[in-house]
Amino acid sequence: MPSGGGSPFEGLDWDLRNGPGVLATSEAALNATERRPEPDSRGVISYPGYQVAVARRGDTAASVAARVGINTDELARYNAIIPTDPLREGEILALPRRIADTGPVQGGGILPTGSPSVGASPAPVDVSTIATTALDRVGTPTPPATTRPSTGGEPVRHQVRRGETAFSIARSYNISAKSLGEWNGLGPNLDVREGQYLIIPVASSAPPPSAPAPQPVSQPGTGSPTPTPPSAAKPLPAERTTPAATAPRETPASPDLGAQRSTSTKMLMPVQGSIIRPYSKGRNDGIDISAPAGTAVKAAADGTVAAITTDTAQTPIIVVRHADNILTVYAGVDGISVKKGDRVSRGQTIAAVRAGTPSFLHFEVRRGADSTDPVPFLQ
């Protein structure tokens, strides 16, 4: 775990745009978003088509409902939460029906009291999701065309579906996951739950960065202009050398880099078996290890259970957080013997291999949200 108990996503490239073959920074600036509007004295933000309430420190669905004057069970069911569940400061709750507006107009207008509510009440669920990209077997749902954002005005409202994460939703709308988290009070881990309503940040109206000046183009047949050599424009600096007499007489011994090498990244094979599907970036973000059903799945290294969830096929997934912002993912498991928040030690049994044809363990190693080949980490 990172020192000081900080978030595992500190220093993370929230837009996932670094690295070769991806968008340049100038293009990423086109997707900047505005700040979320300020709520009224009750914590309510009103838009023409819907309203949301912003939770305060120590709030629950019951306290928010009492403050805005709405039925507690109705508000909790609409947002797929338990009435007594604690809310994060700044977290958004969608109001199932319109209440009287008392504050200034937010986001382009106010509808009269009694306007029809937007959306249908989802079934109460509580699904925790990992803030990493989805496993290769999990298809990321794409919002229908009717939910694509417009520039300015009322933000689009998105209801989280099973298998979605804050990162997949942000990429679907071409916005920053950090902005999505700030607008909806998702907390440092960007946790979302099935049935939750999110408001999508509105694109900034700031002008795009100016295009670079065009380079001069020579006429056909005249050849390309020859650039001026650097030495012709500016003399080389005077060379300063140290006389041999003043050079150090003794060369210090080279450090033993082998003795200083950290072994914190060395991991234990979670199960013993052959690799039947190797790592392939973007295709298989981990390795598949063949093992009989019921084989004990062991923690690859010391760490803390960060999440226990399921993919769209209801296959259980365990995520363990380790030092140096490393995450390990174990999918295709059954008989889970740990819970979220538990400390686990290297080699500790955390689950068993799920029955299948064939049965295998899917194992991933991630640096933050970015997958990497697990083989170099294993002994």
Automatic annotation (TrEMBL):
Residues 136-158, 203-269 are annotated as: Disordered. SMART domains: LysM. Residues 51-95, 156-200 form the LysM domain. Residues 233-253 have a biased composition (Low complexity). Residues 206-217 have a biased composition (Pro residues). It comes from the Bacteria. One of its GO terms (molecular function) is metalloendopeptidase activity. InterPro entries: Cell_wall_metabolism_enzyme, Dup_hybrid_motif, LysM, LysM_dom_sf, M23ase_b-sheet_dom. This is Peptidoglycan DD-metalloendopeptidase family protein.
